[in-house]
């Protein structure tokens, strides 16, 4: 079943949008889980001080000894930082509130945009995919993710003004490409919380389709109560409600993104 990933370097994918509540974490967690189910060795990196990806996998923050903070600030050897998630082939580098401090401490450090890239270098051979869940800002933490990644996936909520802020995000991505990471590319734009019963949702999808005909993912992630309940149980969608529309949509999205990323 396992399609061999090309080359020995993993795909490093940042899930980014400076807006909060658009589905970044839900997408990062479920994509990571589905990739692991498809035989890929996956590392999920939580680089948001809110630590929602960490909690979503059922990991108690109080018990954490090493986190993304240590990866960025050199607080522990990188090889010792990933935690087993309790799912086959899925590890996580968790985050907690301490990471908010890193955003400040990094400012005066050398290679401040490259700390994540440097930190994961010794881990690359262990994984086929590395998925990074970004915070809702374009600050130094997100910048570290964009410098460590080869590609970005942008979740957009199917809401009025979904495209607002996207210009700023694109400018940031262009600046990163120009000055820091020329190989960075946008893998796709994924529409989340799609409600097919409303005209608005379809209008938003149509509009994004016009702006990004190449980038918009075919798979729409439906608005689903089950998707929003799963994290409070520490479960991914396929664990919580395997036949639900949300879980199925993330399975399809994963196939679509594997097709885009592992092609060639
Ligand atoms: P972000 O990481 O961009 O802030 P989240 O993934 O945390 O966004 O999603 C924000 C909130 O919306 C969370 O409570 C989450 O459970 C919920 N949510 C995310 N995707 C969906 C969806 N497709 N349907 C319903 N609720 C969703
Ligand atoms: Mg989040």
Structural class: alpha/beta
Helicity, as a percent range: 25-40%
Order of helices and strands: EHEHHEEHHEHEHEHHHH
What is the CATH architecture annotation?
3-Layer(aba) Sandwich
| Rg value | 17 Å
What top-tier CATH class fits best? Alpha Beta
How many strands appear in the DSSP assignment?
Answer: 7
Structural domain tally? 1
The biggest beta sheet is recorded as: 7 strands, mixed
Proportion of beta-strand residues: 5-15%
The number of helical segments is: 11
Unreliable residue runs = 1-6
Bound molecules: adenosine-5'-diphosphate, magnesium ion
Q: What is the residue-mean pLDDT, rounded to a whole number? A: 94
Describe the protein's architecture and organization.
The chain has helices at residues 24-37, 52-56, 68-73, 98-105, 115-120, 140-148, 166-179, 199-211, 225-229, 237-240, 245-262, and strands at residues 11-15, 42-46, 83-87, 90-93, 129-133, 151-157, 185-192. α7 links the parallel β6 and β7. It is globular, with a radius of gyration of 17 Å. The protein has one domain (11-259): P-loop containing nucleotide triphosphate hydrolases (Rossmann fold, 3-Layer(aba) Sandwich), CATH 3.40.50.300. Strands 3-4-2-5-1-6-7 form a 7-stranded mixed beta sheet, with helices on both faces. The chain is an alpha/beta fold and 264 residues long. It is built from 11 helices and 7 strands. The chain is 39% helix and 15% strand. Residues 20-26, 52, 136, 192-193, 221, 223-224, 227-228, 231, 246 line the site of adenosine-5'-diphosphate.
